[in-house]
Design goal:
Layout lengths: L10 E4 L6 H18 L6 E5 L5 H14 L4 E4 L5 H10 L5 E4 L8 E7 L8 H17 L6 H6 L3 E4 L2 H11 L2 H7 L3 E4 L8 H5 L6 E4 L21 H10 L3 E5 L6 E4 L5 E2 L1 H15 L6 E4 L5 H9 L3 E4 L3 H11 L3 E3 L5 E3 L8 H15 L3 H12 L3 E8 L5 H10 L4 E2 L2 E7 L4 E5 L4 E6 L5 E8 L2 H14 L3
Helix pairs in contact: 1-2, 1-4, 7-13, 10-11, 10-13
Length: about 475
């Protein structure tokens, strides 16, 4: 058995290497043991999956293990976005959900996410318990029933998760205003589980075009199904060719969003957070705490001060953001990866809802994305951002970690270091409210370097200088 460790959002592995049917069965048995230990066996566990290779078959294996442990399962009848599956946990008062997805990882990967009964990311305390239960399952063995036997006994039933989710979103977003606005939208589903949901949510918006909307587990033309600038050339081109007002992309399981403006330019997730927060606070007049991971924008602090709302900062991962959203009844939570969650919904990322709120903002204001961004900058000043990902040999991790911990620069790229912290990786806050951070990915063998500054040139200088600190 490969060591099964839950990272920032679930366990992920390479298909047929460590992500095997046996290991998925162990994960499922661990979840079953956890639910039984918690006494959370009323209702049916929701099991969903994305469009990756063999995701359906892996999900069926999860259902077989649940049935073998006497836990009823609702198995989605087709690939579904993670937020859609998660919302069904609340809607059906389920004890939780198991979702087969590797989100934005490359095509050779798959993953296992567990969503507890509150429908958000499992907290570190829960994932620690799951890992322990998986270890016990390895020793005690896996109990399962063949799928057809389980179906015959009523322990596995099919579920269409879309209808309750679509009804929920219609309560949260003014879909009528969007449909009547005449906004021309291009949606990039990235061959993922979000395909078709744009048309389902906005059936009367005639000017909606979808690209990469068919299933292809190889994700052709994409390094990975992640809605970042380097993967959105086709979307940018489609926006320009069609004269569209905006482009919206979802990652493989549609819990993240990427925005391209009417000029085909990528709007970073940090800018998107600022736009969404400003819209909720200003145009909608809502109030409530804002929660951010340390890798996302400092604009949130400016907006919090302007509108008199508190801001909470966490380590990377919605497993850290989610508990604070619940505790504070927060208006919004967000992270650098393009994942945003909202009050009155699930305390979890929802790329579909995020994209719709951008459209509602455009419909109500009559402005295009570039104009909305200028409006934001008029309040908080210009903020530019970029992230670099560096792969590295596994044997170099200890050396890089040591250098990261020991680096104590007074200046970076000529700007004075105001403070340093190790909340998650190593972050240096600089004069002028600029910052640079280096941390190891929680899901892949990558070293990530992030920077936010007042100009693109300064961002590049900060990234270069940070990498030099580690000898890269």
């Amino acid at each position: 058995m490969a060591s099964i460790k839950f990272g920032t959002d679930g366990w992920r592995g390479v298909i047929a290497d460590d992500f095997t049917f046996d290991n998925v069965a162990l994960c499922a048995q661990g979840v079953a043991r956890y639910l039984q230990e918690q006494g959370a066996v009323d209702g049916s566990l929701v099991v969903g999956y994305d469009t990756r290779f063999a995701s359906r078959e892996f999900a069926e294996r999860v259902a077989e293990v649940m049935a073998g442990n006497g836990i009823p399962t609702l198995l989605t009848s087709s690939p579904a976005p993670t937020p859609v599956v998660s919302y069904n946990v609340l809607h059906r008062k389920a004890p939780g959900a198991a979702i087969i997805t590797a989100s934005h990882n490359p095509a050779g990967w798959n993953g296992f996410k567990f969503k507890p009964d509150y429908a958000g990311s499992a907290t570190p305390e829960i994932t620690d318990r799951l890992e322990a239960e998986i270890g016990e399952a390895e020793a005690a063995g896996v109990r399962s029933l063949p799928l057809e036997t389980a179906r015959g006994r009523g322990l596995v039933r099919d579920l269409d998760p879309a209808p309750p989710y679509l009804e929920q979103v219609a309560r949260l977003v003014d879909l009528e205003a969007i449909s009547q606005s005449g906004i021309h939208v291009v949606v990039d589903a990235m061959y993922g589980a979000g395909a078709g949901y744009g048309a389902a949510l906005l059936p009367r918006l005639a000017t909606l075009t979808e690209i990469h909307g068919h299933v292809n587990p190889a994700f052709p033309g994409l390094e990975r199904p992640e809605p970042v600038d380097s993967n959105l050339a086709d979307l940018s081109q489609a926006v320009l060719e069609r004269g569209a007002d905006v482009g919206i992309a979802f990652d493989g399981d549609a819990d993240r969003v990427g925005i391209v403006d009417e000029k085909g330019r990528f709007i970073t997730p940090l800018q998107t957070y600022g736009l969404l927060a400003l819209y909720l606070l200003e145009a909608r007049g809502e109030r409530g705490a804002l929660v951010k991971s340390l890798t996302t924008t400092s604009m949130v602090y400016s907006l919090g001060e302007r509108y008199g709302v508190p801001v909470f900062e966490t380590a990377v991962g919605f497993k850290h953001i989610c508990p604070i959203m619940i505790r504070e009844n927060a208006l919004m939570g967000g992270e650098e990866s393009g994942g945003f969650g909202f009050r009155g919904h699930i305390p979890e990322r929802d790329g579909l809802l995020s994209g719709l709120l951008v459209l509602e903002q455009m419909a109500r204001s009559g402005k295009r994305p570039s104009e909305l961004l200028e409006e934001l900058y008029g309040l908080v000043g210009p903020h530019h951002y970029r992230r670099r990902d560096r792969s590295f040999p596994a044997e170099d991790r200890d050396r890089l970690s040591a250098r990261l911990e020991q680096a104590e620069p007074d200046r970076i790229a000529g700007t004075r270091v105001v403070r340093a912290d190790s909340l998650d990786g190593r972050r240096y806050t600089l004069a002028g409210n600029e910052w640079v951070l280096m941390r190891f990915s929680g899901t892949e063998p990558l070293l990530r370097t992030y920077a936010e500054a007042g100009s693109p040139e300064k961002v590049e200088a900060l990234l270069d200088a940070a990498e030099e600190l580690l000898g890269l």
